Amino acid sequence: MPAVDAGNGMGGMGRLAWMNVFRFCKALRVLGHVMVLAVLALVGLSFYAVAVETLGRGIAHGAPHIMVLDLVLLVVFSTLVFMLVWSYFAAVLTEPGSVPEDWHPFADDETATRELQRWNTGGDTLYDRADPQRPRYCRKCHNWKPERAHHCSVSGRCILKMDHYCIWVVNCVGLLNYKFFLLFIAYTWAACLLAACILMPGLVEYFRGEKKSGSTLVFLSFVIDAAFVVSLLGFLGMHLKLLSVNCTSIEMYEKQRIHPWPYNKGWRSNFDEVFGPSWWQWLLPFHTEAERQRMMDTVLAAPLIERVGAVEDV
């Protein structure tokens, strides 16, 4: 069995470990906490411009039919903002799903111990990379990892079905909070679109020179909301496409693609895997305990897939 040295034998790479730039990724956590405040500030600005400066004035001083329309719009917009904030903090505070301690892909603990000993002997040699169904081991966590798990350089652990680390939510987006992240994007896009439409008349008045109290704030809020509508549309579309084929952002950009994609079970099954089978749960950012356990069991029991010639990740 050909051996590949994991340490000093890799062309002196061990001597360059101090140059590992990924350790600086942990600084993103500090930036992320600032981003939480930025998100709340942007939401507050938009809500004030829409609810107080625009709809509030219409409800207080408008004709009866204007009052009714503005009241309906206020209820709809407030609901979107509430769901946006709920989804946001669900994505921020929910554990994305880590590999359980002492997990292994082998039939029994004895086999796992034997394989780990083989890993740690013979000059820290790795298993044969030509093995089409080799198990995956994280050299940073010192633990076996299941399919679709990847090591997050920011949080310093392996995340199940990792999609990416998002500084907006100060968290890694993975198995257990991907649904909340998608809902956050969707509700944000819908709220910004509605806000831009509501603020449009005020924008027209602003450029006509009919400046009123709060018109500058309305103009600023419209620009921000419109920018998010445009930018999030492509991002949301990309993630809906990935959702339909059961693929993550990391897997989309992997150097060696696998055809056919073994996790694609059809768009409806792929959707249910993330959002759950119950329709009443689809728009709510939470998982029942049974759903969480089902998701964990599914990803941990995923069979090894063939990686002929693929490079082992960490």
Automatic annotation (TrEMBL):
It is found in: Membrane. Residues 134-255 form the Palmitoyltransferase DHHC domain. GO terms for cellular component: membrane. Keywords: Acyltransferase, Membrane, Transferase, Transmembrane, Transmembrane helix. GO terms for molecular function: protein-cysteine S-palmitoyltransferase activity. Its EC number is 2.3.1.225. InterPro entries: Palmitoyltrfase_DHHC (IPR001594), PFA4/ZDH16/20/ERF2-like (IPR039859). It is an enzyme of class 2 (transferase). Pfam families: DHHC. It catalyses: L-cysteinyl-[protein] + hexadecanoyl-CoA = S-hexadecanoyl-L-cysteinyl-[protein] + CoA. It is a multi-pass membrane protein. The chain crosses the membrane at residues 30-50, 71-93, 180-204, 216-240. Its main location: membrane. Belongs to the DHHC palmitoyltransferase family. The DHHC domain is required for palmitoyltransferase activity. PANTHER family: PALMITOYLTRANSFERASE ZDHHC16. This is S-acyltransferase. It comes from Ostreobium quekettii.
